[in-house]
Sequence to fold (276 residues):
Amino acid sequence: MSDRYAVIGNPIEQSKSPLIHTAFAQVMGQVIHYTKLLAPLDGFAAAVDAFRASGGRGMNVTAPFKLDAFAYATDLAPSAQMAGAVNAMKFEGDKVYAENFDGVGLVRDVVHNLQCPLKGRRVLILGAGGATRGALLPLLAEHPAELVIVNRTVAKAQELAALAQQHQSGQVPVVGLGYEAVQGVFDVVLNASSSSLSAELPPLPASVFRPGCLAYDLTYGKGLTPFLKLAQQAGVTHLADGVGMLAEQAAEAFAWWRGVRPDTAAVIQKLTVPLV
Ligand code: NDP
Fold:
């Protein structure tokens, strides 16, 4: 019998994880069975219990259950502790190992796939939700010159900046600001707000984009979002969405479960929606 994995969420129909993991397994010659699991909003633990009891080996976790998974896990990796949320679990006996690969997936996409080194660069990240929180340590590990977090609710940006500062000894300056206080130009501008899900434009001045910079929207599959359009109108030619991040976090989970890391290029190509 093949090893069983699933992605759990509510809703779950939209999830690309089965397609991605099935493609990875085929290329890597691994025999796995990967499905979507719709859990009731108040039924996360019961659904995971049942999946484990039936022999399930691991799960990806998507909205709205990333905090439930954090509470359910017995062993939280530093990435999950820092993010305060879990996006992948591995089951071994009574143990539930938990990780959060979103941040490392983002950084790998930017640095490796898009060939945009972060070392010594000024990085601006929009939003102060779960995606930004999970990205803090992987971003800082690349030693940018500065990391600026900007958010509508300024206190949340300041909280995350303080958290980031606690986890390093001050080598990288990290500040949290409101949009009206952003100054200067940036080499990398990451939209980790959820503005693109509702086709809204964050109140960002177009002057933040340095010529030659990368503008990256973590939302994927939406084409040219209002954020990417703003960047394009400001003269930015290096535009990307979060499809590569999605594929890279999946590859991390696959490697963690199966011991082999698949290449992501084919999956990224298959899932890419043109930025027009
Ligand atoms: P959260 O709900 O945790 O946080 C949302 C953030 O967006 C908050 O900081 C909120 O600001 C801000 N926001 C919402 N609407 C607007 C707006 N119109 N203008 C400016 N700011 C806004 O979301 P997540 O952090 O979990 O996710 C953020 C994005 O990242 C989503 O689009 C998600 O799809 C994407 N993502 C992509 C992944 C990938 O693999 N590519 C993985 C994970 C996330 P405030 O605090 O003021 O309300």
Notes: The chain is about 35% helix and 25% strand. The chain has a mean pLDDT of 97.
